[in-house]
Task: inverse folding
């Protein structure tokens, strides 16, 4: 195994560390614990080689520059302006005494607090040692959308004294829901939500093992349906219910029409053929049924006026109907 700078390794004690710097003679290296954010530590290359294995880098920040909001770029650039002069001082920045002197001098020159400089340095080392590693975590601000450590949400049941207050949706229950959703989606055209819910209860929540007296200790039907609609959009649910072919034919959203493509009368025409819902008989003998006629219409897209029509027995096709439409002008 080859050990390189900025590589993430998992040690025998389950710590995840980033290699900050490797001695040119490959005698020792400096590593940084990216979970505990402790100070960099020196370790021999032999020890590091024998007690580590490569691991996935889940902390690296990779962004498209155009997608970064302007206020995020400003905060990033300000942080980088402060620490850029000392992160290149390798390996002195990783040594305790030298690092303290560098930060003390930087604080004096820039006026930044030492604590803030340490925070920015650790964030830089944790997230891949790039300029974008200093982007702020504004996406973590605010209340988290889903919390599993709180009591069951919603108003209390009307008959809570008899049925109980129900259960909250834990990660385990949500996994069971997702399994039930997959089964339901395969047969959504012939199964109801209620049927899918009852199948799930019978398979995963047997009453004799998940009930306490008469109180239900398994998720309700309302929780099941609500979580389904939180998981899938209305479009996805309808596609499962009707099938992709029928959805594309009858239910897909119409985002525009062809009228915008015509800029003048006669600029574009539309042709449609319909088999009439009548039967024609022979003029020689009305007992002879000739068949159902095909009605062709040609419409000017710009004015929506009927430019011509044709009635015949030719099956609906552009090859046979097109010439007749031209003759009808």
Result:
């Amino acid at each position: 195994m080859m050990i390189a700078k900025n590589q993430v390794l998992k040690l025998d004690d389950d710590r995840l560390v980033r290699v900050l710097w490797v001695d040119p003679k490959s005698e020792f290296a400096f590593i940084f614990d990216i979970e505990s954010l402790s100070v960099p530590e020196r370790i021999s290359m032999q020890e590091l080689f024998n007690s580590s294995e490569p691991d996935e880098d889940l902390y690296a920040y990779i962004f498209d520059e155009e997608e970064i909001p302007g206020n995020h770029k400003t905060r990033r650039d300000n942080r980088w302006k402060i620490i850029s002069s000392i992160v290149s001082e390798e390996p002195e920045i990783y040594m305790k005494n030298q690092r303290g002197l560098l930060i003390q001098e930087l604080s004096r020159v820039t006026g930044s607090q030492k604590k803030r400089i340490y925070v920015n340095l650790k964030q830089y080392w944790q997230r891949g040692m790039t300029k974008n590693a200093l982007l702020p975590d504004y996406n973590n601000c605010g209340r988290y959308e889903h919390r599993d450590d709180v009591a069951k949400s919603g108003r209390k049941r009307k008959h809570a004294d008899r049925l109980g207050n129900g259960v909250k949706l834990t990660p385990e229950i949500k996994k069971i829901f997702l399994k039930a959703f997959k089964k339901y989606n395969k047969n959504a055209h012939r199964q109801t939500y209620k049927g899918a819910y009852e199948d799930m209860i019978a398979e995963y929540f047997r009453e004799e093992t998940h009930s306490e007296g008469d109180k239900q200790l398994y998720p309700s039907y309302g929780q099941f349906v609500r979580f389904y609609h939180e998981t899938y959009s209305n479009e996805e649910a309808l596609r499962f219910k009707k099938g992709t072919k029928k959805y594309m034919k009858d239910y897909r959203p119409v985002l525009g029409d062809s009228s915008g493509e015509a800029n003048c009368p006669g600029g574009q025409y539309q042709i449609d053929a319909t088999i009439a819902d009548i039967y024609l008989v022979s003029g020689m003998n009305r007992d002879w049924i000739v068949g159902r006629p095909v009605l062709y219409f040609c419409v000017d897209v710009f004015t929506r006026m009927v430019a011509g029509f044709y009635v015949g027995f030719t099956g609906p096709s552009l090859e046979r109907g097109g010439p007749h439409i031209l003759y009808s002008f």
